[in-house]
């Protein structure tokens, strides 16, 4: 505030200016703006009472601002991060109950218990779907279920493509599968590209296109498509089966094994998943995957 007579800067709620001696309660309100309503100060005590009230308020405000918070501290993420309540809802969402499982409510981590920069903390804050997927793969062996499901919940927060004409897309997808079975990879890729354009939200089409790119030795394109599949639904075993094939085709057997362990983690029926691994160990059409399925089947058996 400024002195109403000499203009010197004064502390808030000063009653008398030390420079010129002018009382600050003699000429109307002390607070600005001047356009605000002026109280009736005809009483000689009004200014003094008002000043005392302001002093009390200033003291209360200082104590309030310097007091340490007692409530929970909220973690602030990237602009794409949603509130804790919406994250919890997304963590429970299951696109296909017979194929995917969400993290049990009892196992959900509390923000207050998360160690900064731990794998769980990093999974909860990962900035891209690819970064989240890497953390999930690392947490597959040895199994860190909280990290895996936290990464999946984080991926669910990223923007998904809009749905399209699924009926047309599915017809093209079926034609493409026939072409793949017949060894006509280039034609299959063309059909699957059209299918994906008609419905970018169809996970099976995106995964099939990724696999077709693998068969054409187009690894960069395949990798990008498989990340897109995770954005659509990172809890679907189908997504991780395709990623296992991707790593196997690149000669990274360890990452392929980890991918199939995530298939097991996200399977609602673990016994069915084990039977699938055992069957694929004998008849997987991608033959280099057969020993990978066998290893995972033995690992899963040993853990039960």
Descriptive terms for the model:
304 residues, mainly alpha
- DSSP helix count? 13
Helix-strand string: HHHHHHHHHHHHH
Major sheet description: none
**Distance between the amino and carboxyl termini:** 75 Å
Summing up helix and strand content along with how strands pair, one would put the structural category as: mainly alpha
The averaged pLDDT comes out at 75
The shape, in one word, is elongated
What's the β-strand tally?
0
Helical content band: 55-70%
Strand content: under 5%
The unreliable regions are 25-46, 53-106
Estimated radius of gyration: 32 Å
Report on this structure:
Among the domains are: 1-35 and 42-59, no CATH class; 86-150, no CATH class. It is mostly helical and 304 residues long. It is built from 13 helices and no strands. The model is unreliable at 25-46 and 53-106 (pLDDT under 50).
SSE map:
Layout: H1 46-66, H2 84-92, H3 119-125, H4 129-138, H5 145-155, H6 166-181, H7 185-198, H8 203-215, H9 219-232, H10 237-249, H11 253-266, H12 270-283, H13 290-303
Outline:
The protein has 13 helices and no strands.
């Amino acid at each position: 505030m400024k002195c109403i007579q000499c203009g010197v800067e004064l502390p808030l709620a000063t009653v008398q200016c030390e420079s010129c001696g002018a009382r600050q309660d003699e000429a109307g309100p002390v607070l600005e703006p001047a356009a605000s309503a002026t109280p009736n100060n005809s009483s000689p005590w009004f200014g003094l009472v008002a000043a005392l009230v302001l002093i009390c308020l200033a003291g209360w405000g200082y104590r309030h601002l310097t007091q340490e918070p007692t409530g929970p501290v909220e973690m602030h993420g990237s602009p794409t991060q949603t509130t804790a309540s919406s994250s919890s809802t997304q963590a429970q969402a299951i696109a296909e109950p017979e194929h995917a499982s969400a993290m049990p409510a009892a196992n959900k981590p509390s923000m207050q218990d998360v160690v900064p920069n731990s794998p769980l903390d990093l999974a909860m804050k990962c900035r891209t779907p690819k970064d989240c997927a890497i953390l999930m793969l690392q947490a597959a062996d040895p199994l860190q279920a909280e990290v895996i499901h936290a990464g999946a919940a984080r991926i669910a927060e990223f923007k998904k493509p809009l749905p399209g004409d699924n009926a047309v897309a599915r017809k093209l997808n079926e034609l493409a599968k026939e072409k793949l079975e017949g060894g006509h990879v280039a034609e299959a890729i063309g059909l699957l590209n059209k299918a994906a354009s008609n419905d970018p939200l169809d996970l099976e089409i995106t995964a099939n296109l990724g696999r077709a790119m693998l068969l054409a030795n187009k690894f960069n394109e395949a990798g990008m498509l498989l990340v897109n599949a995770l954005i659509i639904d990172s809890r679907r075993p189908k997504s991780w089966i395709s990623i296992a094939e991707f790593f196997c085709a690149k000669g990274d057997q360890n990452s392929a094994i980890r991918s199939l362990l995530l298939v097991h983690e996200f399977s609602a029926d673990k016994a069915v998943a084990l039977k699938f691994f055992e069957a694929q160990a004998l008849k997987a059409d991608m033959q280099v995957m057969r020993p990978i399925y066998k290893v995972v089947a033995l690992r899963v058996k040993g853990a039960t």
